[in-house]
Specification:
Blueprint: H1 10-35, E1 39-41, H2 44-72, H3 78-107, E2 111-113, H4 116-142
Antiparallel strand pairs: 1-2
């Protein structure tokens, strides 16, 4: 088999992240719907549409987090380190309320994710699985 080194541009990597993230959300929401009381969805179509919404919101939250870190990381002093920690925490904390609001206002009675800790657990599961998938993707490219 011929070995090729491929270099991906930022648009390709963003597409891959959103595409893979959407499917990870769909699988995760499906499992949570089937096996827990955290997610309640009427159909797989609703789960899939919700996974698109949640992946876009997750992508935007991480993009905002990256902008905050980029703006504050080169500044010296304990104040800026504490400010960076607080701002990143605040974005990640408040984003869960945005997620709940977006699902509730978009899907109404067709889908619900129960509570702040429910969406936190779903989002945390998705982020961990997505990071693991990224590590596997990179490792496969190295070998």
């Amino acid at each position: 088999m011929k070995k090729q080194n491929k270099v991906f541009n930022s648009k390709q990597l963003i597409f891959k992240d959103i595409f893979v993230g959407t499917f990870i959300y769909a699988v995760t929401l499906g499992f949570f719907n089937d096996y827990t009381d955290i997610v309640d969805a009427r159909s797989f179509s609703t789960i899939f549409y919700a996974s698109i919404v949640l992946e876009i919101l997750t992508f935007l939250a991480f993009m905002l987090k990256g902008k905050i870190i980029g703006w504050l990381k080169d500044r010296e002093g304990l104040f800026y380190k504490a400010m960076m920690f607080f701002c990143v925490w605040l974005v990640m904390f408040l984003s869960k309320f945005v997620f709940i609001w977006a699902i509730d206002s978009t899907f109404g009675a067709n889908m619900s994710i129960h509570g702040f800790f429910g969406i936190l657990f779903v989002a945390l599961s998705v982020v961990i699985i997505h990071k693991l998938a990224d590590k596997i993707f990179i490792k496969l490219g190295d070998s």
